[in-house]
Amino acid sequence: MSRLVVVSNRVADPRKTAAGGLAVALADVLNSTGGMWFGWSGKVIEAADGGKPGEARQHTQQAGPVKLVTLDLSREDHDAFYVGYSNGVLWPVFHYRLDLADFDAGYVAGYRRVNQLFARKLKPLLQPDDVVWVHDYHLIPLAAELRALGCGHRIGYFLHIPLPPSLIMAAIPGHDWLIRALFAYDLVGFQSRGDLRHFDRYVEAEAGAQRLGDDGRWRAFNRTVQACAFPIGIDVEEFQALTDAPEAREMFERMRKEYSRRKLLVGVDRLDYSKGLPQRLKAFRELLKSYPEHRDSATLIQIASPSREDVTAYTDILHELESLCGSINGNFGELDWMPVRYIHRTVARPRLPGLYRASRVGVVTPLRDGMNLVAKEFIAAQDPADPGVLVLSRFAGVAEQLPDALLVNPYDIEGTANAIHLALTMPVEERRVRHQSQMAVIKKYDVHWWCQSFLDTLAKAEAEVTGTPWL
Ligand code: GDG
C-alpha cells in the first residue's frame, strides 16, 4: 500500500481529536497506511531573528505512525503568501468579493516563492511510491513546482472553497497561470457540482481543453487531469458521540432551563465576511419587526469565533456586527429578554453539540461557502423525535445536498425572515420528515466517504510521469 503524504497550509497533530472532523478523517487514513503531514508550523521568524524570504526552519516530529514536518516562514513570506495573496486575493475573489481583493504584485511573487519553498523542502522527503494529497487555495501551484523539480508522483488536489465562474476568475491578473497549474495534478476535487461546472467551462472556453470521456478527464497543456466533485462531510458518529457526552448534555440542559419558554436560534461561524453575518442579523431584526409574536421569545445565539484579525476587511465586519447587535438589543430587548446573544470568542468544541440540540433553528446563511460543515453538525446533533429546522443559504455548497432544508437567498432579508418564521412555527411531523432525509444524506456522505472516494479515484487516475516545467 502506498504511503499517503498530506500537504496543507496548517498541520494538525492527528493524536489530538479536538481539531475536528477533517483532522480526524485525515488522521484515520494517515494512521492506517502510515504517512506524513507537511505544512506551515504557524510560526513566523522576524527579519531581526534571521527570517529571510524563500527560506524556512524545518521541524520534524513523529506522532504515532505519522510524521509531521512543519516549516517556520519568514515575516516577509508570511505577509505576502498568507496574508497578501492567499487571504487578500484568492479568498475574496473565490468568494465572489472582487471589491475586497488587493492585487499587489508583491503578493503573487511571495505566493509563488512559498510554493517553491514547499516543493523544495518536500521533494527530498518523498519516497517513490508516495501518493501526495494537497489541500486548499494556499497551495494551488505546488504540484507544478514539484513537477518542475522532476516529481512523477501521483498528486491530488482538493479545493475547500468555491471556484467562481470564469468572468470572476478573470479579474485575477495571471488567472490563466493558476488554472494551468491545476493541470500539474492527476486529480482535482471540488466541493460541489456547481464549482466543477465553473472549472469545466473555464478550461473549455479559456484554455481550449479537450474533454476525454465522461469521467471528468480533460486534456490541455500536454497533460491529462481528472476533475470531480467530492462534497466533504463530517464524522457523524464522532459528532453524535460528542452530543451524548457529559459536556454537551450539560450545555443542553442549561440552555433548555434558561430558555424554557423561549425558542433558540443558533449561528456558529468564523467571523468572516463570506458568512453573511450582517445580513443574518438584519433578517432576525426583520423577523421581530414583521412577526411580533416572536418578540420576548425568539433568541439568536450567534457565535462568531475570531479569525484572521490581521486582515482589515475582518475588523470592518467586526464593527458592523457589534453595532447591529447593539441596535437590535436596544430597540427590541426587554428587561428580562435580550434578542441577540453575540459571542466573539471560540466556544469549546465539546459544548457545541449541546447548543445545536437545544436550538429550534440553525441559521446557516453564508453569502458564499465551499461546503459549510456547521449545517451538517446541526443536523447530526438533533433529537430525531423533536428536531430543529435548518435555514440554509442556497449559496453554500451544502445546499446541493440538503434540498429539504429551508433554502434562502441571504441577500433577501425579508425572504430569510419569512423562512425563519416558518422554521419557528413548523409542526413536529414536518420537522421529523425533513430531519430524517437530511440525516440520511450526511450519514452516507460522511468525512470517511469523502476521504476514501477521493483517494480511490486518485489511485485509479491516469498518472503521467513528467518533468516538464509548468510555469
Ligand atoms: C472551509 C470552507 C468548508 C466554528 N466556530 C467555532 C468552531 N467552529 C467550527 C465549526 C465547524 C468549523 O469550525 C467551520 O467549518 P465551515 O465548513 O463552516 O467553514 P470554514 O472554516 O470556512 O472552512 C468551508 C470547510 O473548509 C471544509 O472543507 O466546509 O466551506 O470555507 O466544524 O464547528 N468550533 C469551535 N468553537 C467555535 O467557536 N470549537
Automatic annotation (TrEMBL):
Q: What is its EC number?
A: 2.4.1.15
Q: Where are the transmembrane segments?
A: none
Pathway where this protein functions = Glycan biosynthesis; trehalose biosynthesis
The record, for InterPro entries, names: Glyco_trans_20, Trehalose_OtsA
Q: Which reaction does it catalyse?
A: D-glucose 6-phosphate + UDP-alpha-D-glucose = alpha,alpha-trehalose 6-phosphate + UDP + H(+)
GO MF annotation terms:
alpha,alpha-trehalose-phosphate synthase (UDP-forming) activity
Specify the superkingdom.
Bacteria
Keywords annotated in UniProt:
Glycosyltransferase, Transferase
EC class (word): transferase
Q: Which residues form a coiled coil?
A: none
What biological-process GO terms show up in the record? trehalose biosynthetic process
Which NCBIfam families does the record associate with it?
A: trehalose_OtsA
Complex formation: Homotetramer.
Instruction: State the function annotated in the UniProt record.
Output: Probably involved in the osmoprotection via the biosynthesis of trehalose. Catalyzes the transfer of glucose from UDP-alpha-D-glucose (UDP-Glc) to D-glucose 6-phosphate (Glc-6-P) to form trehalose-6-phosphate. Acts with retention of the anomeric configuration of the UDP-sugar donor.
Family affiliation: Belongs to the glycosyltransferase 20 family.
Q: Spell out the protein name for this chain.
A: Trehalose-6-phosphate synthase
